[in-house]
Design goal:
14% of the residues lie in helices and 30% in strands. A hairpin with a 5-residue loop joins β1 and β2. It starts with a strand and ends in a 49-residue tail after the last helix. By secondary structure, it is α+β, with helices and mostly antiparallel strands.
């Protein structure tokens, strides 16, 4: 399916793959977009939300890839049924600390290292029977 966009930055929007994942309650999509510059996550989220009739906060852009010299970009994204599903499944990003608050970091306790023990010296194996091998006779 191909869709012409009014936006001058992005010309073609083509769905390459669409797969329903019941386990994670999401739709995994792969789309192709032709654009002069690499599209931003927010631009892609708007396009996907319009195309699939879903809310922007239910969309997670996994990857935007393009080849050098090409104007075609492949986007991998997940569309969740609800914001709660997305929050439960997607890994959390680190939150920025509020200005004026210093992040509290406890110093790690120093671990005492056991002193290195030298292995016992091995004594060379000596033949306790000092006699000649019995195979030779004089």
């Amino acid at each position: 399916m191909q869709l012409k966009l009014d936006n001058s930055k992005m010309e073609n929007f083509k769905i390459l793959e669409e797969k329903e994942n019941q386990l994670f309650n999401r739709k995994e999509i792969q789309v192709s977009i032709e654009a002069e510059v690499t599209p931003s996550n927010s631009d892609i989220e708007k396009l996907i939300s319009e195309k699939f009739s879903t809310q922007i906060e239910n969309i997670k852009i996994k990857k935007i890839s393009g080849k050098f010299g090409s104007k075609t970009f492949t986007i991998f994204a997940n569309i969740y049924a609800s914001k709660k599903d997305k929050e439960n499944i997607e890994p959390k990003s680190k939150k920025k600390s509020v200005e004026g608050e210093a992040p509290t970091k406890e110093p790690a306790p120093e671990e005492s290292k056991p002193e290195e023990q030298t292995p016992p010296k091995e004594e060379p194996i000596t033949n306790q029977n000092n006699s000649e091998p019995s195979g030779k006779t004089n």
